[in-house]
Amino acid sequence: MMKQSFFRYEGHNYLVPFLIISSLFFMCGFAHGFIEVLNP
Question: Which residues cross the membrane (predicted)?
Answer without folding.
Answer: 12-35
